[in-house]
Specification:
Blueprint: E1 6-11, H1 16-31, E2 36-41, H2 44-48, E3 57-60, E4 63-67, H3 73-80
Parallel strand pairs: 1-2
Antiparallel strand pairs: 1-3, 3-4
Helix pairs in contact: 1-3
InterPro entries: Thioredoxin-like_fold, Thioredoxin-like_sf, THIRX-like_proc
Disulfide bonds: 15-18
Protein name: Thioredoxin family protein
């Protein structure tokens, strides 16, 4: 098991895609007992600091891993491991 907690940020203005991504990420974390904190960033100015033009975007430990689409659970799990 990871000693360090993962830092997960979901960038998005709260649209349905952003909510879907949040749901997928939360499911993966709880189903796999992953130690992680999830932060939703909905402020457009804050999102722009990441230079992301397409939301939702998934940021894991300050690295943009996915943008503009909803990932599968398997994809999220692979990114978190």
């Amino acid at each position: 098991m990871n000693i360090m907690s993962k830092s997960i940020k979901i960038l998005g203005t709260g649209c349905s895609k952003c909510q879907s991504m949040t749901g997928v990420v939360k499911e993966v974390i709880s189903e796999n007992n992953i130690d992680a904190t999830i932060e939703k960033i909905e402020d457009v100015m804050e999102i722009m600091k990441y230079n992301v033009m397409a939301t939702p975007a998934l940021v894991i430990d300050d690295v943009i891993t996915i943008k503009g689409r909803i990932p599968s659970k398997e994809e999220v799990l692979a990114l978190l491991n």
